[in-house]
Amino acid sequence: MHPIDPDRHSRRAFLQRTGQLALAGAATPWALNLAAMGDAAAFSGGDYKALVCVFLYGGNDYANTVVTYDTASHQRYASIRAAGAGTAAGSIVLERSTLSNTVLQPATPLPEGRQYALHPSLPNLAKLFNNGQAAVQLNVGPLVVPLTRRQFETRAYPLPPKLFSHNDQQSVWQSSSPEGSTIGWGGRMGDLALSSNKQSLFTCISVTGNSVFLSGQQALQYQCSTSGAIKVRALQQGDWMFGPNEGMRQTLLDLVQQSRSHVLQNEYNAVMRRALSSEGAVSNALAGVNVQTAFANNNLSRQMRMVARLIGARQALGVNRQVFMVSMGGFDLHDNLVARQPGLLLELDQALSAFYQATVELGVADKVTTFTASDFGRTLTSNGDGSDHGWGSHHFVLGGAVKGRRFYGEAPPVSASDTDSPLDQWHVGQGRLLPRTSTDQFAATLAQWFGVQETELSQILPNLRHFGNAGGRLDYPIDIGFL
User: Which residues of 396-433 are buried (b: 16+ CB within 10 A; e: fewer)?
Assistant: First the structure.
């Protein structure tokens, strides 16, 4: 028996959930914010800021993205990765000689002579790093509490739910909860930002379909395609349903907007009115924006170009704070890692570098912070032609406000053995990194730059109480410092 919770099954909750369900269908206009303005007034002034999450679905291989480069560490990396390949043809090792054009040159050298380079397909990101517009967050991932390897092995300490599961870890990264979660930390920031925007509907915008990251208690994600606002096709002039019969189209338009006596019918038509109005507002706003920066012809670049255009339309859309999400898939490379990852990372490199240039063109480079995220990192060991599910990973943060040309967090030792030596304390077998920085710390740093007050962080990130001053763990600071 499942008792009904009145708070979760109120009329308002029902309407909100019907809106959330309809977000999955691009043909309907229910992808709208049904809630009123946010209660919190966390932001003041007329300045603009935006966060852009670039999610890499499938679990990107960290070891071949941010590659250990100093001679001693690279030798250990190559030895570990080559051991499981079986043959040279199946090797997933990136030779040190191929990394010379993407060596990262931090303002402050890492301890013990550690060096990193990026995958050869990431030359533009390497340039952004070396010019000070990008940073690398080392070994970050979901944690409930700070953990050592020994504590992980005892299973006596709380762990992120369903580790190494794609769907669950995607959700944990985006919401701190496993698959089935309905609220993400991007949406929670949107809740706090609603009252600072004249048009609160455009606070959280996805250009990649439905995602838990952008869903809040009040803020619901508005979805755009790479071409712009999603239209109700049957109501467009000349659509195939009615063709030249303008009278029938107008009749349907009237029917779906008129007030009704039935409460749910009336609410649906109110949503339709808002949908049509919002589609017109977005289309008109985008018509006045012309981004000259050249973007590559790939899906992620098209998504990021649309984000740039929406940011360019910020005044017409009446927003001071926005959270965006874009994504790309294909990173679940148990096989063909060497063959397939280069193309994926090239697409990422082209999209991120062009987007940064577009923010410069728009005059908002210091107002927009972009960051990557993924299900998890992968094993340092090879399974023969790829790598398997892991935990911690390395990620990028870029933008004019980023304190770039730096590494944040701790460079993990290059090891995959199961001894008690210091080299083996920050992985949990097969070179799966045990995160030394939690997703909550990473998100809290972004949130505070965005304008969230320290006292409001617990509303966004439920596990943050175990870190920093509140958790008595100053070695896990709430503000990592990259912004």
Answer: bbbbbbbebbbbbbebbbbbbeeeeeeebbbbbbbbbb
Q: Which domain holds residue 345?
A: 29-471
What's this model's pTM, rounded to 2 decimal places? 0.87
User: Is residue 225 one of the residues assigned to a domain?
Assistant: yes
208: tokens are 């990649």
Neighbouring CB atoms inside 10 A of 354's CB total 20
- pLDDT digit of tens for each residue in the chain (483 aa)? 333 333 333 344 434 444 443 333 333 332 333 333 334 445 766 799 999 999 999 999 999 999 999 999 999 999 999 986 655 556 899 999 999 999 999 999 999 999 999 999 999 999 999 999 999 999 999 999 999 999 999 999 999 999 999 999 999 999 999 999 999 999 999 999 999 999 888 999 999 999 999 999 999 899 999 998 876 655 555 555 556 666 665 666 666 667 777 767 666 666 666 666 677 788 899 999 999 999 999 999 999 999 999 999 999 999 999 999 999 999 999 999 999 999 999 999 999 999 999 999 999 999 999 999 999 999 999 998 999 999 999 999 999 999 999 999 999 999 987 766 666 788 898 999 999 999 999 999 999 999 999 999 999 999 999 999 888 888 899 999 999
13, part of any domain = no
Neighbours of 329 (CB within 10 A): 13
Interatomic CA distance for residues 232 and 416, integer angstroms: 53
Q: Is 80 helix (H, G, I), strand (E, B) or coil?
A: helix
Do 65 and 129 form a contact (C-beta atoms < 8 A)? no
CB 137, CB 394: distance < 8 Å: yes
The total number of structural domains that make up the chain:
1
**478 in a domain, yes or no?**
no
State the Rg of the chain over Cα: 23
The answer as to whether 346 is a domain residue is: yes
What 3-state DSSP class applies to 366?
A: helix
Single-letter code of the amino acid located at 26: A
| Angstrom distance (rounded) from CA 352 to CA 368 | 12
- Write out the H or E segment, with its range, that includes residue 267: helix 263-287
Q: Report the C-alpha gap between 336 and 341 in whole angstroms.
A: 8
Angle, CA of 52, 217 and 264, to the nearest 5°: 120
The answer to whether residues 480 and 441 touch, using CB atoms and an 8 Å cutoff, is: yes
Report residue 191 as tokens.
């809740």
The pair of structure tokens assigned to 238 is: 């000349």
Closest CA to 373 of 323, 326, 339: 326
Count of helices and strands (H, E) across the chain: 14, 12
CA pair distance 379, 390, nearest whole angstrom: 5
- Token representation of residue 15: 């309407």
Cβ atoms of 471 and 456 closer than 8 Å: no
